[in-house]
Amino acid sequence: MTVAMPARLPADDPETAGADFPEIVRRYQSMVFSIALHFLADRGAAEELAQDVFLQLHGTLPTLQSEEHVKFWLRKVTAHRCIDHKRRRKLPQLSLEDAPEPLAPARTEDPLLAKRLRQFVGSLPEKPRLVIILRYQEDMLPEDIAAVLSMPVATVKSHLQRSLAVLRDKVTRTMGEVTL
Amino acid sequence: MTPTNQDPNLLEEALRNALRREEAPDGFMDNVLARRAKQESPAQARRSQWFSLFSQPFVRWAAFAAVSICLVFGGVHYRNLQRERARGEAAKQQLMLALRIAGNKLQLAKEKVHGINQPQPPKTTPARSRS
Predict the structure, then answer these.
(1) Which residues of B42-51 are buried (b: 16+ CB within 10 A; e: fewer)?
(2) Which of A35, A82, A75 minimizes the C-alpha distance to A57?
(3) Which of A26, A115, A52, A55 is nearest to B19 (CA)?
(4) How far apart are CA A79 and CA A159, in angstroms?
(5) What is the distance between the alpha carbons of residues A33 and A47, in angstroms, rounded to a whole number?
(6) pLDDT score, position B39
(7) What is the Cα–Cα distance from A32 to A50, expressed in whole angstroms?
(8) Looking at the predicted structure, is the pLDDT value of residue B57 above 70?
(9) Does the reported pTM lie above 0.90?
(10) Which residues in chain A have their CB less than 8 angstroms from residue B8's CB?
């Protein structure tokens, strides 16, 4: 995206802040929607959740000081709303048995492998799942993930290591020989 | 062993590919803005209705009178409460004084009774001088 955004948002002017709101939605809708989608694995629920996040943002926007602050806020609120949503709805954990068998050897760019990996990520517990999504979707550092999820950096690193081991194991067991 | 198992970078690359950002559904922004407008309009309408009430002089005076009456009655009620509290305090002090006096009298009586009941010591005769 090439649209320039002021480093400092006009916090004291609600009208200007209101005028910026559509631009902020346009800029971050993909980020918020994708975090929700990868966590919930449900497009409808992810869209609704993302809309709720932006509606909440609208009320909070005058208190946010900079673009980085907005981005941080959006990631944090989306992450927490995802966990809340999951706890409220009690979505069933995706088991490996539910996943369809692969039809052909997969490659990294293969949509089948990507789909399988998304399913495996979806089967992780809530916090590790969010850590993986923020690490590999948003390319965030463990320190930043720790700040967003309000947890120690060591815990984030531990979640990352364990989740990668689990994912590697699942890929090995279900996909067999993968040609990358 | 799969290549993703052998090389952690390949698994990470595969994860990055699988978890790439997706475009929000068509009309996402319009839906957000529509919901925002929908949320705002009832609140604004309520607020404007509320403020429009006070634009009429009669309502303004009525509100002023109501607030004044509340203040006067509140003040009177507060003063009565203070008076009752002071009266209660005075009664309490009197009661405490009466109890203290009664206690002293009781103590005196007890000492007298105790003195009567105690056996008299035998009278000692003064020793005669033989001279």
Answers:
(1) eeeeeeeeee
(2) A75
(3) A115
(4) 15
(5) 6
(6) 80
(7) 6
(8) yes
(9) no
(10) 164, 168
